[in-house]
Structure formats: structure tokens, C-alpha cells
Amino acid sequence: MTTLTQYENSSARQLTILSGLDIxxxxxxxxxxxMKLQRVLVLILIIFVILCNGCxxxxxxxxxxxxxLAKGGSTFSSDNDPEMIKAAAPFSLKFMEGVLAETPGxxxxxxxxSSGFTQYAFxxxxxxxxxxxxxxxxxxxxxxTRALRLYLRAxxxxxxxxxxxxxxxxxxxxxEPEKVVQNLGKNDVPHVYWTAVSWAGAISMAKxxxxxxxxxxxxxxxxxxxxxxDEAFDYGAIHSFLIAYDMNRLSGTGDPEERxxxxxARAVKLSDRKQAGPYVTFAESVSLSKQDKEEFKLLLEKxxxxxxxxxxxxxxxxxIMQRKARWLLQRIDRLFVN
Length: 338
Hints:
Layout: H1 37-50, H2 55-70, H3 82-102, H4 107-132, H5 137-165, H6 169-175, H7 177-180, H8 189-204, H9 210-213, H10 216-229, H11 233-245, H12 256-270, H13 277-290, H14 293-305, H15 315-330, H16 332-335
Helix pairs in contact: 1-2, 2-3, 2-4, 3-4, 4-5, 4-8, 5-8, 8-10, 11-12, 11-13, 12-13, 13-14, 14-15
């Protein structure tokens, strides 16, 4: 995990866990119904009307707006235009931050922001840095620095959410991470997962930051607890993350590749072979490190063969991962010695 190279990094480029790209404006449970724009506008109007009519009413309105933003899936997850989502995401995230400023203890908004900033950093910022690296190293470094800041922001929101749900969690966790996570339950898994993933992403962007690298046991305590509590979470998201993480894990027994293959098989099964993410993750983190060119190509071709319309709620995530698969295939002669 501490050996972070261009193609075998420990987390952010491993974050091929976009099983729905749950960012930006939240909708109803399961993401099956798009939140009505009128509802948001009415809520915003109510807020402005009552701003001068007392703090309690303002708080009530803000909490309702926070609930609306934090619920369910994403209006963007079924989109097929990543560039449009890339342009829209910052505004939506900042809007949620504005609402959170008025309702700082809103656990739903904290979760939405933790997952949203993590996915935005991975899907757009880290990939931009990777693509710039060969021709503009300065830009790549600057972009990764930006990704680091976004991941840390996401991590902090995740920790805040856990502290809201379990008062005193953060202080206790920093002292005894493995012990404290035992108090978490299945309902905490989304918060635990996004906190761990964003934290790992930050570490992978800060290769020379000893303080961050020292936090790896905390990341492992969180993600391992999430796996125990709900290994099927979000159609295999934990397993998909662990494909790459276990290849560089500080702790762990047995063969890292064998562990990664087990996570890959489980992630593929739980997603019913309809997510490109696990295939791209395994190709980049395992096949490439082994210099297995044929396996690398086969996995990326399988990722590209997935019908992005088969699961509309995963369309954007699959489009993004297929774009990455094409980019990797275009560079295959540079990635492999023979």
C-alpha cells in the first residue's frame, strides 16, 4: 500500500467503485424517481420568505431542503454525457455545502457531500491528471494536488457524519480505530465506506506525506468493518474497492493477488456483470502489475462490451469507466514491456 507508482497506486486509481455515481442532487429512495425541480424551487422560496421571520422557522426549512437533497439516488446517474456532469457537479456540491452551513448536523447531507466529492475527484480530477502526466507533468502535479484537497474534504464530511451518528466517535477512533469501529452497525456502512474510500484516495495523492500514510491502519479498520457488516453493499462496491487496495495492503495474510481475484469475482457477481468498474480496476491494478497483457486486454474489452443502457442508474458510471478502458487500451504499448 505504501508503494505508490504511476499505475499501481493504492487507492484513488483503485476507486473504480462508481456503481451509480451518487453525486449532486438527491432523489427518492433507490433513485427510481427523479426529484421534481419544482419541489426544490418551492423549498428555496420558502427559505427566502422566512429568513427574517425567526431562526426556528429558518432551521426547519433548511432541514427540509437538506432532506430533499440528501435522499436516494442522483438525477445525474443515468446521464450519458460526462462532460456536462463535470461542469454541473461543482455548483450542485457547493449548493449542498451552503445548505449544510445552516444545518451542520445533517447526517444525510454530510453523506451526500462525502460521496459526491469523492466521486467527482475520482471520475474527473484524477483522470485528468493521469491523462496530462505524459505531456505536462506540472499540470498533472497541480491537478493531483487539487484531487487531494477534494478527497480530504470528502473524508472530513464522512467523519463528521459518523460523529453525528455516534457522538465522540472521531476522537475515540483516532485513538483506538480497530476497537471503536466494532461499535458501528449495518446502517453506518454508507458513511464508513465513503469515509474510507475518500481517505484512501487522499493518501494515494500524497505519496510523500508521512502523516497521511500513517493513517492507513484507520482506513483498513473502516473498510474491513464495512465488509463484515454488509459485504454486498451497493452491488459489490466494497469488493470492487478492495480489488486494488488488497494488492497494496499494509496488513493481510496470504497472496495479495489471490485476495484481489476473490474480491473481483464477488464484485462482478453482485453487480450482475453490468458494471465496467470491476473489470477496469482488476486490469489496472492486477493484470498490469503482473504484466499480463492478454488478461489486461480481455478485461478491458469485457468492460467495453457492457451495455450502458442495461441499467440506466449505472449509465454515467459505466460511460466514465468505459472511457477509461479505451484510454488504457490506447496506451497498451507503453504500459507493457513486451
